Amino acid sequence: MALSWLAIAALLAAAESNSAARARAEIEQQLKQLTKAEPPRLQLELLPVSAAGYQLTQAKLLLDGRPLAIPSVESLRTGARLFDGMVAPGKHELEITLDYLGDSGLFSYMSGYKFRLARKVTLVSQQGLLAAVSIQAVADPSVEDWKQRLSIQVGRRDQMLAAVDDGELPAAPRRVALAPPPPAPAPA
After folding, report:
1. What predicted TM-score, i.e. pTM, was given to this entire model?
2. Distance CA 94, CA 120 (A)
């Protein structure tokens, strides 16, 4: 008897998940019809290092294993857009390598030290969305080992590429003036 209840519960759960999947697919189809979905777009921007005493000497970025064209290191030091283009929907692998040279007059032990920062990030792109990704070398003074203070931080902001078309709104209903109620009969 207990086994049959478990079988019924499993069938109900499967039917519920199947109906939820059909409903989700129907909603996605309606959304596609309402929006003029554009291919996904990706923007990559390198921000200047967050602290003084570090000089960028080299930058290398790979998107899905392919190197991106990088402007001159001098132009990157103040921040620069590295990529702005369409990408295929789905997962993309971004590999970032930034080299910095310690350039601090205040801390002589840091001068001339070479910092190599590397980070891999998986980005998921979707139809109709712009993924604006910012990359920045950030110095954390709370880290005791000064050789480990610099790290890469990656931020992401998504933005819809197309406006939703809700169609035309129906005309406002006409207002009908109502006649005042008739006066109450006089008491007799």
Report:
1. 0.65
2. 6
Residue 45's SS3 state is: strand
Name beta bridge partners: 139. 150
Beta strands 54-63 and 66-67, pairing class: antiparallel
pLDDT, one tens digit per residue, over 43-76 is 999 999 888 888 899 999 999 999 999 888 888 8
**Which residues pair with residue 174 across a beta bridge?**
none
* CB contact at 8 A, 91 and 6: no
Q: Tell the residue number behind the tokens 């790290």, with chain if given.
A: 151
Strand order in the sheet with 90-102: 66-67, 54-63, 90-102, 114-125
pLDDT in tens, 7-52: 555 555 555 677 777 776 776 677 666 656 788 999 999 999 888 8
Could you tell me whether strands 129-139 and 41-46 are parallel, antiparallel, or unpaired per DSSP bridges?
parallel
